[in-house]
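Journal club prep, notes for RB
We'll compare a predicted complex against what the paper describes. Inputs for the zinc ion case:
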Amino acid sequence: MIHPKTCLKYINNEVGYGVFATEFIPRGTITYVKDALEIEISPKDYQQHTTEMQAVIEKYSYIDEKGYRILSWDFSKYINHCCNCNSMSTGYGFEIAIRDIFPGEEITDEYGIFNLVESIPLQCNQQNCRKYVHPNDFDALYAQWDKWLVNALACFQQVEQPLLPLMDAPTQSELSNYLNQQAAYKSVYALRFKKQEVSN
Ligand SMILES: [Zn+2]
């Protein structure tokens, strides 16, 4: 589920839709949580869909560490990539604002964390745009992502967290152990899907 202080807006024909903040969302706020209604598509189920349906699923889902495609039931699935994203997945599976997000600003993500099957071209128009997101961006960039995530998590307990009650209990406990310094940090690399672990 996407943060409640957001809306869906049509951007243009090229990009399609995007998700925008309607109020200030400070760094450290959960922007997306994998709630109990998210649709989980196993690799086996994915193979059983038609080519046309597979293309739709591929466009709107992300692949988790088990190789499952997660399709959001709400408009979380319209969050676009940006090479200077303001929101990012953590190793715990939820997404967090890695900097302050202002009203009217588009909420953007790092697609390199989504275990892409193929490279996808980008149109984020940033000066440092990588032009493509590649499947191996995960390996090349996760150390930098972890730095931003650790800084964002340091603000976690100082900001409002409307999505926290929707997070599953094991994740809440894992996160709270880290925040209370009873467990080590879980790198975003924990979300990297390794093919030999595939389960149906
Ligand atoms: Zn870019």
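Talking point for the session: The mean pLDDT is 95.
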